[in-house]
Amino acid sequence: MKLLDTEGCVTPEESRTHIRIPFELGENCERLNLRFQYAPKKLENRERAIALLKESYDLYILPEHREYAAEHTDRHLPLNNLITVSLDDARGYRGACHRHDPLQELFLSRQEASPGLMAGELTAGSWSVTLSLHCIVTEICDYRLQIWASEKEESA
Amino acid sequence: MTWFACELHTHTLHSDGRQTLGELAAGAAGLGFDVIALTDHNTMSGLVGKEEIEQEHGLTIIPGMEWTTFYGHMVTIGLSEFADWRQAGLDDIDQGIAEVHRLGGIAGLAHPFRIGSPACTGCFWEYKIDDWNAVDYIEVWSGTFPSIQTNNRRAFDLWTDKLNEGYRIAATSGRDWHEQKETDEPISVTYLEIDEETADGKKAGGSRTDSGSKETPAGNGSCAAEKARDTESEKNAADGFAASVSLEDRLIQALREGRASVTIGPLLTMKLNAGGESYRIGSVVPAAGQAEEHSGTTAAANELISVDLLLDFSVRAGLWSLPEQTFKLKLQSNLGEELSLDVPVPVSAEAEESASDHGGHIKTETQNQAQQMRLEAKLPHPTDKLSRKWLRAELWGHMRGVYVRIAFTNAIYFEYEEGATSR
Ligand SMILES: [Zn+2]
Ligand SMILES: [Zn+2]
After folding, report:
1. A62 and B124: CB-CB below 8 Å?
2. How many domains does chain B have?
3. Same-domain pairing of B183 and B290
4. Which of A144, B23, B233, B298, by CA, is between 20 and 30 Å from A46?
5. How far is the CA of A73 from the centre of ligand 2 (A)?
6. How far apart are CA B203 and CA B228, in angstroms?
7. B9: closest CA among B102, B140, B118?
8. B42, A96: Cβ pair inside 8 Å?
9. Could you tell me if residue B197 is inside a domain?
10. Are residues B43 and A76, on separate chains, in Cβ contact within 8 Å?
């Protein structure tokens, strides 16, 4: 049963913010499925990437090492967007999937769950997905989140 | 007293690691670790099946989580429940640390000077900390062959600055271990000291290292936590299940109290003798007046103090190597470098006596074909009005052609006059 299908578009200004997406889970859910994707992953514009890196070097690297860093930007390229998913049920935290894949197909059931999420009772009530926008480097980044419940164990 | 070899910063495929907990545990056991802390990013789901894996590999696994936030990464260990990392803004990490403490855990700054976003999101520590007393530890060495990295040098200096300001903060290493990949770079180990007498709550396999000294330090400081623990064990004894505190909890307590020593080679430990009492790493030497009040002994902090230093080359045998050379063993404090001793390895004579140009007295003793080397140093009085706030030992030498810090102890602290800060 489809519970949610939402799309959005975020920009670099929204870096370091969370987007909380609530949804209701009904009774008798045996398996909760989530599909999250975002694109683009990479910042293809090399000039822009190097400019962003140099800005960050001013913040994070000692003045005497900045020149060296600026000449070796390749070790930090390409730059990527990073959005991670965490999940809460009505009672609390159900884990997070802090990894770099721009497409994540996740599930939870009583016995099992995708790595990062916690298996256990799928209690009816108010749940939420939190999208954590760790870093958006492309001008725009589109995301889509789909959530559906299955009554019996089946592959997503 | 027993020193446990710990790897305190690890990841599995429950976050962005490329290894299962079983693979990680096997790798850690193979490298001679007794203990690992699992610190996946923002989740504790990787701990499922922990007990079987501990048994299979003779390893203790401490539960933990790396708060992987927008303004810094914070390693939290020793808590079984989740503390929410998502609410922390730039100015409110103090509440986050308080929550970790409320859940029985401790918190440390992870790789505080690693480059931040966009190269490594949130990796640079930007949080403003109101109360540095609340910070349990700083991961001053991150990654493999950590002592040559600029980022780690900055973290080490941050630690030293905080000690100078009077805070009592522990320092650790963490590999930030994401995958089983062969490396020929030196691997750092954080050793934590557990009391032998109370370390029977839970069995852990591996090759724990006996420091060779059985005496219990009679007056190991005025730490409130120490007292709380004593009271608890008394209570437990009265209830008929003495010393039921788990090894996990004791390891956390050890780090909370700064009973730690970090190395990419031999294990370096020290004990300090002042005013007739013995003080171990992490403990507090009371000021002269206080010592008199409490134990009737005289002027502990201002008398000539002797420092027993022990270099144990037998730890994790065969898993690291250093070229033959003359090392420098240094005693460092807020007063600067107080002493620097030449330590030739291997030593030519069974025992060797010399006097340093600082007036320190050095006695070297080697045992078991130079597997252990004991040195005794006498520290001079502080020459001016400055009082000593803390003291640590450091081993310096050549490794891979670079002159680096090879090992360092956590601090022994001193009660001192004027504006003293204490936990
Ligand atoms: Zn980190
Ligand atoms: Zn990490």
Report:
1. no
2. 2
3. no
4. A144
5. 22
6. 24
7. B140
8. yes
9. no
10. no
| CA–CA separation, A89 and A86 (whole Å) | 10
Beta bridge partners of B319: none
Q: Which ligand neighbours the alpha carbon of B114 most closely?
A: 1
Domains of chain A, earliest start first: 2-42+80-151 (2.60.120.380), 46-76 (no CATH)
ipTM, 2 dp: 0.96
Residues B185 and B298 in one domain: no
Q: Tell me: do B24 and B157 sit in the same domain.
A: yes
What residues are neighbours of ligand 2 (ion), with CB under 5 Å? B 66, 176
Could you tell me the strand order of the sheet in which A2-10 lies? A2-10, A141-150, A31-39, A103-109
Model pTM score: 0.88
> Tens-digit pLDDT profile for chain B (423 aa)?
699 999 999 999 999 999 999 999 999 999 999 999 999 999 999 999 999 999 999 999 999 999 999 999 999 999 988 999 999 999 999 999 999 999 999 999 999 999 999 999 999 999 999 999 999 999 999 999 999 999 999 999 999 999 999 999 999 999 999 999 999 999 999 999 998 654 444 333 334 555 444 333 333 333 334 434 444 444 444 443 435 789 999 999 999 999 999 999 999 999 999 888 999 999 999 876 544 445 444 444 456 789 999 999 999 999 999 999 999 999 999 999 999 999 998 765 444 444 444 445 555 666 555 689 999 999 866 655 668 999 999 999 999 999 999 999 999 999 876 644 443
- Computed on alpha carbons and rounded to an integer, the radius of gyration of chain B in Å comes to 21
Q: Record the tokens describing residue B419, joined without a space.
A: 């504006």
Q: What are phi and psi of B45, to 5 degrees?
A: -70, -20
- Is A99 at the interface with chain B, CB within 8 A? yes
Which one of B169, B192, B215 terminates a domain?
Answer: B192
